[in-house]
Amino acid sequence: MTSRQRPTVLVLGTSGLGSGDEEAAVETAVALLRSEHLIDTSNNYSGGASERILGLGLAALAPEERIAAARRIITKVDRDPETGRFDADRVLRSVEESLGRLGVDTVPLLHLHDPYVVTVREALARGGAVSALVRLREEGVAATIGVAAGPVPLLQRYLDSELFDAVLCHNRYTLVDRSAASMFRDAHERGWQVFNAAPFGGDLLARGPRAGARYHYRPASEELVDWTAQAELVCTRHGVSLPAVALALSLREQTIDGTVVGVSSPARLDALLQLAATVVPDAVWDELDALGPAPSPIDDSGYGDDE
Ligand SMILES: NC(=O)c1ccc[n+]([C@@H]2O[C@H](COP(=O)([O-])OP(=O)(O)OC[C@H]3O[C@@H](n4cnc5c(N)ncnc54)[C@H](OP(=O)(O)O)[C@@H]3O)[C@@H](O)[C@H]2O)c1
């Protein structure tokens, strides 16, 4: 088993890119592409607009910048939006669509994205989605392949298949939920690349505890908002912000290679880089531990059994 010491990097998430004004979106794409960070997109983000806008951003760069930037775009294959089909044929079509929108021939990493409409058995079977990903890796279209989803028991089953090089899990390694910790350790020890997405829980840990706050794309409970208010007090007492600490939790974790954060504008990118540079005093971690576990809304217990 390996236990490499690898630097954890920021990965810029683009799930919302292309859902608003196109000119502003291309400007954001150019800023992300020039930042020299990895970029995370998917076939289905903003109905395909995320990849299309990244493609327009790439086209706006000078040739030498474009080649380097294109090597940093990670994408994902998705089920057919009309039929829900998610087999080998759909994977091949999905990647063809992605390469066309991005204007590239290869990607450094291609994830199987949110494989909820097929069972693990179906995905791993002959003619299943994973066989096409393996073929795309053999052909060099994808340098590496991964699986990206939420539920930890589901990801663990893909991990046990030993067929991938990377895993991405979201909302499950944050200040309020650490349920991905042991799966991340397992993946890290197998030498896989580990990506932790949504370190702000999509809202609560970026904008702070308040009425209407959301975690994991759903309204946060009063108990969770109260717990987060206590955590924010700890941060404030030590002169650091809640989002800076939320980000640092992921960036300091040795089993995580990349922390994937949603970035919606050049200003957000600047703010994110500032947050990432914050030095968090050790006492903050001790005091947060002393609060005890947060009342996380995530319950993945339904995903452990075989279909
Ligand atoms: N299954 C999967 O593969 C999967 C699932 C989830 C996420 N992901 C990836 O991970 C990325 C991150 O996930 P996420 O965007 O859902 O969650 P996130 O990174 O935890 O949170 C992003 C949210 O935080 C807000 N935010 C960020 N910085 C802020 C600041 N300085 N002040 C106020 N608000 C701030 C953003 O607001 P604005 O929108 O206003 O900027 C955005 O709504 C996605 O874009 C995607 O690439 C993958």
UniProtKB/TrEMBL annotation:
It comes from the Bacteria. CDD domains: AKR_AKR15A-like (cd19090). It holds the Pfam family Aldo_ket_red. Residues 10-291 form the NADP-dependent oxidoreductase domain. InterPro entries: AKR, NAD(P)_OxRdtase_dom_sf, NADP_OxRdtase_dom. This is Aldo/keto reductase. It comes from Microbacterium luteolum (Aureobacterium luteolum).
